[in-house]
Amino acid sequence: MVESKSAGSGSSTTRWRPHLLNLAAYALLAVLLTWPTVTHLASALPGDGGDDPAIAWNLWWVKHALLTLHANPLITTTMFYPIGINLAFYTLTLLNALTALPLTLNLGVVAASNLHTLLTMVIGAYGMALLARQQLSAWRGRPAIWPAALAGIFYAFASSQLFYVSLGQFNIASTHWIPYTLLFVFKARRDPRSLRWPALAGLFLVMQTYAEMTYASFLLIFIALVVAYEAAWGVVTTHYAIRNTVLHLRNLLLLLLLFLIGISPLLVTMAPDMLAEGDFWVQGSGFAESFSADLLGFLVPTMHHPLLGGLVTHTGITAYDKGQHLYLGAALLILAIVGLVRRPRRWRWAGFWLAAAVLFGWLALGPTLHVNGSDTGLPGPYVLLQSLPVFKGNRYPSRYSVLLILALAMLAARGLQSLWPGGPAPLRSSARLRAAGGIAGLVALSMFEQLSVPLPQSDMSVPAAYSALAAAPPSEAGTLLDIPIAWRNGFRITGPLDPGFMFGQFYQIVHGRPLLQGNTSRNPEFKFQYFTQAPILNSLLALETGHPLPPGRISADRAVAADVLRFFDVRTIVVRRGPGNNPGAVPEATIPYIEQVLPVERTYADDLMSVYRVSLPPLPQSVQLSPKEPLIRLELGEGWGPLPERYDGEPLMWAQRKSVRLLVVLNGRPQQVSWRLYSPAAGQRLTFSMNGWQSAPLDLSLGWGEYALDLPAAAVRAGLNEIWLGFDRLLPAAGLPHPAEGQRPASLVVCSAGEEVGSFGHIYVDGVDRSPNRRGYNVAVISPEGSVQAMSFDTHLDPGASAALAAFIQRAPAGSTVAVAVADEASMNLGREATAALGSAGAAGDLTGKFRWSHALIGTKGDQPGAALETMDALRPVCVAAGPALSEPNAAAGLAWMRFEGK
Predict the structure, then answer these.
(1) Residues 6+ away with beta carbon under 8 Å from 474
(2) For residue 511, what is the DSSP state?
(3) 24 is a domain residue
(4) What is the CA 634 to chain-centroid distance, rounded?
(5) What is the pTM assigned to this prediction?
(6) Domain check: are 235 and 148 in the same one?
(7) At which of 568, 596, 614 does a domain end?
(8) For 428-440, how does the pLDDT look when each residue is reduced to its tens digit (9 = 90+)?
(9) For residue 484, is the peptide bond before it cis, meaning its omega torsion is within 30 degrees of 0?
């Protein structure tokens, strides 16, 4: 790496030689610092098996969606089948999949993922070098290639960056477009008359968003900091004329406009779910406290250092294994300090880079400052971001380290340049050799400090049984029930806490069949609960997580097993055995159940897996939907209210939105559909849409009515059919009839789920959740006039919560309604005083000793035990309701039943 000649001198080869040398050096470092990845390029991925299978799956899915299905890759039913999932809320790494597409098509998914990860490191390092060169040239006539090149090394090969690679979080390691975005942001500030620079800044901001969405919010904060610094500098020095200010504002608006246009496909795809389901970006604090950096960790090498990795275990830091641990390195800090101390007066951006380092370092420390594992309680600016839309979506404060490292790398490059012979403070000839040696020593120290080799590797070999599935004839294709089965997002896993199900998703790249399970980042609660409450699947979840089934479950499941498997079109079941050291992950425990209960024939078995062929019954001649039918929880899609186990009032399926979905298995012949429905609003109309066919609007009578409609053969599929009922009007829940005339609220619904089956405690009053929805008992006291007082009591961990719960209920006036919903776990510190107080509201159940049970209750203060609407369960979510069962504040109609009869 040598310095280029001044403009207009030297050959083109001479001018490009430093850049080519930089790229070659970065490529070599990428190979060495991710060792031994390159030695098994097509068979293993860096990672721990948690995220790497799913992130690699992205490359296959984008290719499959675009080139095979010719479909929008942001929507899929290949997992979460049949309801599908919106991948705009998932770390799809869409741009990575597109830039890796030539590699994927020619070398396969694993090799493509590995090579693309190396490529992102090279691109990021080179972009940082260009940014540093641009910044350093602001105070010197010619660029300094060496300091800029080393800034690229500091940025792209920091141990915090390599940590994300070691976790298989290739999306979080995709920081490569950040420096380019900032490069053009600064060019736009220096040359405000040109529209080229803000346009390029907007382009690279969009590119970074499609590589990893989280970093878009980081960059917006950074750009805001640039604008604020420029404005402050202009005020202090009167440096800018009004014309320049107007140009800067124009450029900023252009950048943001191009950014919004660029990400509009994401926004358009997100909008329907956000409008219908509300804000589900963050649940609670998002575990930010666990994923924050520790201040002492800035000075301690990470656990992946080959020689010094054990040092962190001798500190008080406990959260250091998921990328929270940020080690900056002595060399980087020393050079950054030198860059500040020896800065020339003309380099007015030194203060900016210091401010950026402080801000993003502080953000990385999370909501409160932790030092050596102890929470000091001192709040940080991250607390503000937790309340802002979009920005609160990042639940890993430590990820702000990417811009902390970038700012320090810039200061370090400046420090290195100030020490470099011939720099702004030239050294004497006799000292130049010692200076060069000292600088080389600092560079060598930095490389040593950031070492994270050997990186852990995940074996991505696909079992031969999956290849056999891929070769099966289309008539035997259908859906694959792949066990272990689980559903995962950024906050929880429903299913076994083992990465086996993530590999099941990865194996889809070979067999290509739809899967019931899936991994995403953010999703509405319904997407998990649909499967958690499904018959058969609920039993499989219990067995694979080490729970015995309750008496009577086997016989009940056997009665519906064939119909459930036919509904999902499951033609094959695969069971992969667990690691054997995790009692909460025993997928092989499902094998006796599968062989006794399900209509299967085993076709293959070895020490690692068993494969079963499913015998499905013929498609039905008629289908009835009603709250009491065993498959009803499968047939109700989005937009319907809860189905309570116990209720006060007529059991109806309430449509809560103008458009609600049904999923119905039919035989493909023309059908007559009839239904009984209650319409609470005059002038209501209904439209019946099915597989692209739509009926004329039907006028509904006020109150009860029975209706019928003929469905043409062209509208009916043999198998699963998607039906949408469209309504013209919604009525507020408070205006719906209640079985007790004049009682308020009109609708009261309580839903509870223990940790393993949903971890929620909802109390819907007229469709609005008034529950704190925290761990333990959530209790709401509702007066006859409708006022609500709600509190939560952590009877799992708080020794004083039981007495507080008892006192809260005891204070409730006689005759008031008491609604109780347990979330997560509530039994460990549950005392007799609390159970007695619950009994005073009509409760008969007692969670004492019932770890992670669900418990829902609607009672009246002063009733005898057993008088309340109440239900409890160890393995399922539970729900009770008084009045219309609504979880949203509006309703369109209540459906009593719907019947399909083939002609």
Answers:
(1) none
(2) H
(3) no
(4) 24
(5) 0.93
(6) yes
(7) 614
(8) 555 567 767 777 7
(9) yes
